[in-house]
Design a protein that fits this description.
Elements: E1 2-6, H1 12-21, E2 25-29, E3 40-41, H2 45-49, E4 54-57, H3 62-72, E5 81-84, H4 90-102, E6 106-109, E7 112-113, H5 115-121, E8 124-130, H6 132-145, E9 146-153, H7 157-186, H8 190-197, H9 205-208, H10 232-248, H11 254-269, H12 280-285
Parallel strand pairs: 1-2, 1-4, 2-3, 4-5, 5-6, 8-9
Antiparallel strand pairs: 6-8, 7-8
The protein binds nicotinamide-adenine-dinucleotide.
């Protein structure tokens, strides 16, 4: 199987490298990033896509995905599959899938969770939207790049699953951090708080697996000065996508909306840029009810 890989940044680079190491013939293109070992370099996105059985994209946003799709779809062979692993808005994912299908090309939206560590280790989780036959054809690639692929339904549903998951994650992280900051002020030590909540009804992934309090719970970015992990600005991107989607379908998401506002303030005005998304805890620690 021949693969074209477009977007070789923090995530795409190691994903493409793993496919080449797995024995696939991978041709790569990026406007800026270097071409990883084991790939053949293409001069344009269309060149990377020509003659490929599967074209994978791992790009920053929906606008860039649409412009790359305009370049690659006309160059692709009929019957090939366009597999987008970027996190983008549901509307762009569905528009690109329609465009591909009009050109008799299969399309999958398959955003990932697992971050850069998961991309390097080949342990990503893929949330997949698109037709069953295209999913079946992409499955050997998911097996190399990840540990799990969940088929969530038709095109766009992979992105829908990703933003719903991350809306829960963002809101839960904020709730966990504000509860720790409240516990501090009430004189409840953090270890006791963790011991109770992690085995009580307030438990969550953010408390139990990714505790935002340094020295408490399993090792997490809090234990290394809040170096990401999952950067606050990426959480902000996903929360904004969730609110864009909620507006488009008239869904009431007040917690997601508030989480987006809080991460926006954190990233843009409160020093959160470049920090892990759990660094909301020191943010809450420093504040009172009005400041
Ligand atoms: P990145 O910025 O490191 O990589 C994106 C790459 O796309 C860059 O190398 C850039 O040069 C390239 N690019 C931009 N425009 C292009 C074009 N027109 N043609 C070809 N290449 C182009 O970003 P990343 O961290 O690798 O993230 C990629 C996607 O994965 C994003 O949608 C992000 O939201 C998602 N994601 C990232 C993480 C993470 O932890 N980094 C986790 C899950 C999902």
């Amino acid at each position: 199987m021949k693969i074209g890989f477009i977007g070789l940044g923090n995530m795409g680079g190691p994903m493409a490298r793993n496919l080449a190491a797995g024995g696939y013939d991978v041709t790569g293109f990026d406007v800026a990033a270097p071409i990883p070992d084991g790939l053949t370099k293409a001069e344009t996105a269309a060149d990377a896509a020509r003659n490929a059985d599967v074209v994978i994209t791992m790009l920053p946003d929906g606008g860039i995905l649409r412009s790359v799709a305009d370049q690659v779809i006309p160059a692709m062979t009929k019957g090939a599959v366009l597999l987008d692993c970027s996190t983008v808005d549901v509307e762009s994912a569905r528009a690109v899938a329609d465009q591909a299908s009009a050109a008799q090309i299969g399309a999958l939206d398959a955003p990932v969770s697992g971050g850069i560590g998961g991309a390097e280790a080949g342990t990503l989780t893929f949330m997949v939207g698109g037709a069953e036959d295209a999913v079946t054809r992409a499955m050997p690639l998911f097996d190399i790049m990840g540990q799990k692929a969940v088929h969530c339904g038709p095109s766009g549903n992979g992105q829908a699953a990703k933003i719903c998951n991350n809306m829960i994650l963002g809101a839960t992280m904020i709730a966990t951090c504000e509860a720790f900051a409240l516990a501090d002020k009430l004189g409840l030590d953090r270890q006791s708080m963790f011991d109770v909540v992690s085995t009580s009804s307030g438990y969550s992934w953010t408390m139990n697996a990714y505790c935002p309090a340094p020295g408490v719970g399993p090792t997490s970015p809090a234990d290394s000065g809040y170096t990401p992990g999952f950067a606050a600005e990426l959480m902000l991107k996903d929360l904004r996508l969730s609110q864009q989607a909620a507006e488009a379908v008239d869904a009431d998401t007040p917690m997601g909306q508030r989480a987006a506002e809080l991460y926006e303030g954190f990233v843009e005005n409160e020093g959160g840029q470049g920090k892990d998304f759990s660094a909301m805890l020191p943010r809450f620690e420093k504040r009172g009810r009005t400041s």
